[in-house]
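User: Teach me something about this protein's shape.
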Amino acid sequence: MNAANARIGTGNARVHLFARGVYCRAAPVRVVEIRKHGHVLTPGRYVGAEAQEDDGEPFEDKMKRLVAQLREQQAEAAKLDAAIAANLKELGYGV
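Assistant: First, the predicted structure itself:
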């Protein structure tokens, strides 16, 4: 099955996305609009995704901060996973 499938009818198209068994449908759009976007079927282009304001933080600084935050969260998640596994093992459900 393709990642995206478009059904094009009489001047209208409906965008269907299949991801992990989830079905999503964007609002009907005109074929001319799909052509204008180079036949890209990303739903955000057709359902009015809001523009985001610039927060003033330089991209490189933001990415460094977010990656550091992600690493901290991943370390905490690993500790929690280990604690859960230990609790399950103690209850007789360990692997």
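Now, about its shape. Residues 4-45 form one domain. The mean pLDDT is 76. If you'd like, I can walk through any region in more detail.
User: That's plenty for now, thanks!
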